[in-house]
Design a protein that fits this description.
Distance between the termini: 59 Å
Helix content: 25-40%
Order of helices and strands: EHEHEHEEHEEEHHEHHHEHHEEH
Number of strands: 12
Structural class: alpha/beta
Mean pLDDT: 82
CATH topology of the largest domain: Spore Coat Polysaccharide Biosynthesis Protein SpsA, Chain A
CATH superfamily of the largest domain: Spore Coat Polysaccharide Biosynthesis Protein SpsA, Chain A
Strand content: 15-25%
CATH architecture of the largest domain: Alpha-Beta Complex
Radius of gyration: 21 Å
Number of helices: 12
Length: about 325
């Protein structure tokens, strides 16, 4: 009987999107990222650079560093990621931004080990925020139980099966800042299997796209919720806004998504959000609409209702609050 040949080290593709690195003073950060990939102890990695048509000497830098690259105009970072997916040869793909880097030499090894062990479709791990000078800012902890109201982990820690990315239509180009979150929610709703790498494997710079444009990021999250959740439940604008502002998940939505025990979901959500010190769970029954909610309030960001109960104003106050917060 012929035995099966098992590839213990399947090819992993790291995709990095770039544009005019030198002009934007990102050369040194990019080189550090490249070195963090080259220094991985995993033996089977291809690193693909998808460049948006740089004309500042970035192409020459890629050639000097011996990188595999493709350069042509694109429609932003997620368009570049989609192009990278089509060109990838690996079983798994990781999207590493040009300013960020692996801070663990075994990041790829640890991720592939968990993926193969659990036969999972994607993995994720812890990360840390650093500033422009690589000084520690804060931890980025994982929160998979909060996925339906908050970004659950740093996308740079995520390794995903290439065939799954292609099957699910890759990144939605309607979103410029939060398409990674849109993808994660879609994968979770489709019940793709995930696994968590317990170690911290990535350093993420706080001045990235979503960090700079808070307004765009939050409004895109709202648009993502409406795009996806409208397929499962008829929610009001107030309910959508409260998902953003207070992490409020209407029970009817949780049940429609297949979460049969909302209390379990919220308890675990609280358990993993260790960085928030003063949270309470409030059970509320709405007699006028006959709806039930489990509401998670963070006292620091809970909006104060105004006289007109203008929900858009609540969103605007929430955005201003976040913009005023330092990382």
């Amino acid at each position: 009987m012929e035995s099966k040949i098992v590839n213990e080290n399947p090819l992993v593709t790291i995709i990095t999107a770039t544009y005019n690195l030198i002009k934007n003073n990102r050369k040194e950060h990019f080189i550090k990222m490249v070195e963090s990939v080259k220094n991985q102890d995993y033996p089977n990695i291809e690193h693909v650079i998808i460049d948006g048509g740089s004309d500042d000497g970035s192409i020459e830098l890629f050639e000097t560093l011996g990188l595999k690259y493709y350069s042509e105009p694109d429609n932003g970072i997620y368009d570049a990621f989609n192009k990278g997916i089509q060109k990838a040869n690996g079983k798994y793909i990781n999207f590493m931004n040009s300013d960020d880097y692996f801070n663990n030499l075994s990041a790829v090894t640890l991720s592939v080990k968990e993926l193969e062990k659990h036969r999972a479709d994607f993995s994720f791990a812890k990360a840390i925020f650093v500033d422009d000078n690589d000084n520690f800012v804060r931890k980025y902890t994982t929160n998979i139980y909060g996925v339906f109201s908050r970004m659950p982990f740093c996308h740079q820690t995520m390794f995903t099966r290439t065939d799954v990315l292609k099957k699910e239509g890759m990144f939605d180009l309607n979103f410029k800042s939060a398409s990674d979150y849109d993808l994660i929610i879609r994968l979770m709703i489709k019940r793709y299997k995930y696994c968590e790498v317990k170690q911290n494997i990535v350093s993420f710079r706080t001045f990235g796209e979503s960090g700079i444009n808070v307004r765009t990021s939050i409004l895109e999250q709202l648009a993502i919720f409406k795009k996806i959740y409208s397929q499962f439940a008829n929610l009001t604008d107030k309910e959508y806004n409260n998902i953003i502002i207070c992490s409020t998940i209407p029970t009817k939505l949780l049940l429609a998504l297949g979460i049969t025990n909302p209390l379990f979901y919220i308890i675990n959500f609280l358990k993993l959000r260790k960085q928030i010190k003063k949270n309470i769970i409030q059970f509320k029954f709405s007699k006028d609409k006959g709806l039930e909610y489990f509401i998670l309030f963070n006292k620091k960001i809970k909006p104060k209702p105004n006289e007109e109960n203008n929900e858009l104003d609540s969103i605007e106050r929430f955005i201003r609050h976040i913009e005023q917060q330092s990382f």
